[in-house]
Amino acid sequence: MTIPTGTIALSDRLLAKLACPRCRAPLRFPDDNSSLTCTSCGRVFSIENGVPLLFPDERPADWTLSQKALYDGVAPHYDNSIPQHVAGHYLRKRVDLVRELAAPGAAVLDVGCGTGTLAAALRNAGYDVYGVDASTGMLEQLGKLGRGAPVAGFCERLPLADNAFDLSITVATLHHISDPGRVAQTLGEMCRVTRPGGYVVAWDHNPNNPYWPILMKRVPQDTGDERLVPQEEIADVLRTASAGTIEARRSGLVPDFTPPVLLGLATLVEAVVERTPGLNVFCAHNVVIARKPA
Q: What is the per-residue pLDDT for 218?
């Protein structure tokens, strides 16, 4: 059964994965199907344009409110902040990594999904994809572009059930969360909602890459309050969260100013640098992969 709510349908499959962000109990529809109600604490959550708004009832910190306002504001032109051929190159790399770790049909969670470009690409590759983001403006763009039915919530308090996903991934989100405590909470939550034997992937900016400070001054989503999180910090947090085996990689080198005609050459150079110890420390991204113990 699928229950229509606004312009997007909320499926039984999604409902089974949702949980109260306060007590983590399952949610249910009331008789009028206009909201969601916690089966334990009775908290009622509204649904707007098909998006469940699953925020904790305590007032968010000023930092959280400012981040939400920032992303709501840049949402309409967020997808154009990087040239499409370069963005497509990195999108393919991320989809290839998910293919390496999980077979099509696996349930994948995109934490900090934004406008849903990765979620849409993974869905097109055959995955059962779910997305969470705090910015309702970003999620509105996702809905307008037909990229799925996401959930509005905080990464540090994922409104999702334990062990609900085969793989959880976050891309370019941690450096915006910035605070070490919130980064640890987010990664811990990703571990919680991933099933035993599943994977947690953190893909974020590499502080050792000298080009990031230049690029981050030009894109609308970066304000100067970001913190590029070291690879070692991410790996240590995942170990503490009992995520099991950890693999750390360096990935990417193609800059945003690469002209389309030179993308192929830039990709070849990137592949050489990624495989070369000493050079790969300067790659654009840190990719940390953790497998939750079975």
A: 75
